Amino acid sequence: MSPRLTLHRVLLLAMLLLFAAFFLTPLYVMLSTSLKTMDEVRNGTLLSLPASANFSAWAKAWSQACTGTDCGGLQPFFMNSVWMVLPAVLASTLIGAVNGYVLSKWRFRGSEFMFALLLFGVFMPMQVVLLPMSQVLGWLGLASSIWGLMLVHVIAGIPSTTLFFRNYHVGLPDELIKAAMLDGAGFWQIFWRIVLPLSTPIIVVTLIWQFTNIWNDFLYGVVFSGADSKPITVGLNNLANTSSSVKEYNVDMAAALIAALPTLIVYVLAGKYFVRGLTAGAVKG
Amino acid sequence: MAIKAQPPSGPSAGPPQAGPRPLAGPAAVPRSRGAPSHWLPKAVVAPSFLLSFLFIYGLMAWNGYLSMSASRLLPNYEFVGLAQYEALFESERWWVALRNLGIFGGLFIGGGMALGLLLAIALDQKVRVEGLLRTIYLYPMALSFIVTGTAWKWILNPTHGVEQLVRQWGWADFSFGWLVDPDRAIYCIVIAGIWQSAGFVMALFLAGLRGIDDSIIKAAQIDGASLPQIYWRIIIPTLRPVFFSTLMVVSHLAIKSFDLVMALTAGGPGFATDMPATFMYTMAFSRGQIGLGAASATIMLATVAAIVVPYLYSELRVRK
Amino acid sequence: MTHHRPALRGTCIALAVVALGTFNLPAHAGEVEVLHWWTSGGEAKAAQALKASLQAKGHVWKDFAVAGGGGDAAMTVLKSRVVSGNAPAAAQIKGPSLQDWAKEGVLASIDDVAKAEKWDTLLPPVVSDIMKYKGSYIAVPVNVHRVNWLWANPEVFKKAGAKLPGNWDEFFVAAEAIKKAGLTAVAHGGQPWQDLTTFEAVALGVGGADFYKKALVQLDPASLKSPTMEKVLGTFKRIKAYTDKGASGRDWNLATAMVIKGEAGMQIMGDWAKGEFIAAGKAPGKDFVCVAAPGSAKAFTFNIDSFAMFKLKNEANVKAQKDLASAIMSPEFQETFSLNKGSIPVRMGVKMDKFDDCAKASSADFGATAKSGALLPSLAHGMAVPSAAEGAIKDVVSQFWNSDKMSAKDAMDKLASAAKTK
To answer: Is the domain of C296 the same as that of C312?
Structure first.
C-alpha cells in the first residue's frame, strides 16, 4: 500500500517537519555556539551561524579546560564513565530481564503485589537516597569508590528495567513456554533460548533508558564516586558551572556535546536495531 | 512492545481486558518430566527484590524518621514529633512548590503522552524518512540536564532568544517574557521537559503500535470503519499496557525534573518555579535543614503514592 | 620441607618489619584531600599555587573540585562524605557554617599552627572570631572580597551627562539620566543571591553600619520592622525600574558584560566583577570605575573564603593538614591567590604593590574599617547568619523584588519571621 500524495499526506509531513524543527533547534544552538569564538558569541544572536567552523573550543573542552586544579579537560573523566556505565547498564538490564520473565511467566502467590511494591521505587526522588546510602556504603567499605557507585545505579535501575521487561514478556504467548516445557526445556533454557531472543525491541529500549540515565547522572556520580573514578558529568559540571570569572560559552557547549556523544551514538545505532526487532515480526505469532 | 490483542478469545471480542494476564506459575505448568520446581523462580528474583525493597522502603523509613528529628546540618536522631511538618506547612515557599508540582506534573505528563502518541501514530503511517525523523525526535533524551537547561535558557531569554529573533523577523511588538515572569516561568519548564521526553514516549508507543496485528485493522476496514475511528476504538485501547508503562516512565521523569528545573530557572524568578524536589534539596543540603527537607520528601512521596497506588491497583488486580 | 619453613617465615617477618619501617620513614609525606569549587581558569591558577606550595613540603594534594551554586553541590557531597565516615582533609566552608560544622564535632583544631604563627595579630578580630569555635581555630581564611562596590562605565555616564553617585539620592538622579539616554541604568542579574547583595548594599547605604549590624547580623526584630527598614525596602524596590526586562535569572557575569559593553551604566556587585573587566582588556580608572556602593564609603562588607579542617586519623595526613593551614596564611600565597582571584589578602600587612588601584583602595578600607568597627560580614554571602536564616531572608527579599503585590509592611513581617528560622 504505497501512500499517495494527497493533501492528507502533505499536512502529515508538514506537521512532522515542524516538530522536527522544534526538536532540532536547541541542538543547532549548541552546535553553532561551540563552533564560534567568544567574540562571535558576545556579539551575535542565538541563531546566527558561526563565521567558520572553529574547533578550538572543542580542543579546549577535551584537553585543556580547567576542572579544578587540574586543567586537563574532559578527557580524564571520559574513561571513568565508560568503566562505570557499561557494567551497571548490563547488570541492571539482565536483572530486569530475569525479573520480568519470572513475574510474567512464573507467577507465584504475591508476585503481583511484590511487583507493585517494586514499581513504587520508580518514583523515589534521588536526593532522598544520598545520605542514608552514604552511611550504608560506609559500613560496607564501598564509600567513595566506583563499585559503590555502580551498586547504587544497579539497585536504582531495577524497578524500571523490571517494569519494561515484565510488561513486554506478558505479551509473549504462553503457548511458546508451554510447548518448550513439553519438549523438556528447563527454566533457564526457556529464558536464554526462547524469551531473550524474542525480547530484542525491549532490550534496546531498556538499554537506551539505562544508559542514558546512568551516563547522564550527576548527583550519584559526584557523591558516591572516588577520587579517581569521577564520571564525565562531574567534569562537565566543574567546567561549565563555574561560580565566578569569565564563562566561555563556546567551550561549555563543546564540552556538553562531548559528554553527550556516547548517548547520542547509542541512540542512533540502537534506533536501527529497534526497528529491526519490530519489523522482524517479533511477536506476530 | 508487541502485545497480542486477547489471550484466549478471538480478535475483536468486545472491549479489551486491562492487558493480558500473566501466566500463573506452578498451576499452569504441566507436571511433566522437565518441570522446574516452584522454588527456582522465587529464588531467582529474591536477591534483587530484597535489595530493591531495602533500598526503596528502608530509605523511605529512614527519611520518615529524619522528618521527625531535629536534624539540621547533619543527621541527628533527636525526636521532635511533627514540628518539622508544622514548619513545612507554614512555609510559603512550600505551598508554591506543591502548586508547581501539580501544574508541571499535569501538563508535562499529559502533554508528553499526547505528543508522544501523536508522533507515534504519525510515524506509523509509513513515512519514508521515518528512521531519520525517529532519531530526531528521540535524541533529546540523550542530553544531560546541563545541556538542555542551558540551551533552553538561551532560547527563552527575552533579550537574546525567541523574542529578539521574532522581532528581528519583523514583528516588533512580539514579546515572550514567560521565563522571567513569576507566574509563567513554570510553563517554560514544561516546554523544555516535553521537548526532552516526548521522543521516548513516542518510541514506546511506536513499539506498541507496530506490534498490533494487521488483521484486526483490515477486518475493521472491511467493516467500513474510518481511520480515526479505527484508531480511537481499537488501536488506542489495545495500547493500554503500553500506556501504563509509559505513564510510569513519564511520571518518573516528572519527579526527576529536579535537574531540569535547577538548570533552567534554579527555582526562579525568586522561588516561583520551585518544586518539592528542589525544595527538599535546597533545605537539606544548602540550608542545613535536613529535618525540614526530609518532611518535604515524605509529603512528596505521600502525594505520589495517593495518585499512583490506586492506579497500580486497578491495573494489576487479578480478575478471577 | 620442614626445615625450610622457619627460614621462610623468618624472612617474611623480616621483610614485613622492613616494609613497616619504610612506611614510617617519610613521616612528612602526608596526603590532603581538598574539597573546593574553584574550577574556572583564574580560580584554578590560584588553587594551583596552593597545591604547589604544599607539594614543595613533600605532601600530596588530592583535588576534589565540585563546581556550582557557590558551593551547593560541594556541600551536598561534603555531608555525604562525613556521614559515610570518609571526610576530606579540608573543605571550603565559610562564615557561620563553620560554627555549625564545629558543633557537630567533626572539625579539628589548628591552634598549634595559629599560635606559632601569631594569627591573632595578623587578622582583625571580627575575622578571627569567625575562624574560631569556642576560642580555638578550626579554619583558615584565604582572602577577602569586598561586596559593597559599585562598578561603572565612565563612557555611559558621560553620554548621559550623569555623575558618579555618592549616596542613594544621587544614585537615582544618575539612573534617571542614563535611562533618558536610552541605556539601561543598572545591570542586574535576577537571581536570589544577587537580589540579596543589592538589598544589603541598600541597607548599608540607607541605614548605616550600625543599622546593618543590628538588623542583618544580629537579626534584631525591632530593627527588622523599623521605619528605617521600610525606607530601605522602598529604595530597594525603586532600583528595579532602572533594570532591564531580561534581568531575571541572568548570571552575574552577564550583567557585568552589559556594563563592559556600554549597554548599562552601573552594577552593584562584589570585587570579583573586576576580573571580568580585566579579562575583557579594560583598564581600571579609564574604562571602568570602582566606587563604594552609594552611601557606604566608610563601611566594608566582607566575604571571606576559608578552609575548615576536618578530624583525620592518619598521623602523616594530620601533619600535611597543618602544613596546608600554614601555607594558606603565608604572605606569598596570600598575594598570589588574591592577584589571581581579584580579591585582597586577608592577612594584614601584605604588600599591595602588584595590585591595581581598586584593590589598593579596598585594602586601605579594610584596615580602616577594622579599626572603626564598620567592617561587617556580608549577609548575602553566608558571612553574617547561619544558612537557614539567610536562605529564608533571601526568599523574602527575592519575592519582594519580583512580586508587585507585596507591600513593604508585608515584607517586614516576613523578614522578622524569616529571621527566626533555625
So the answer is: no
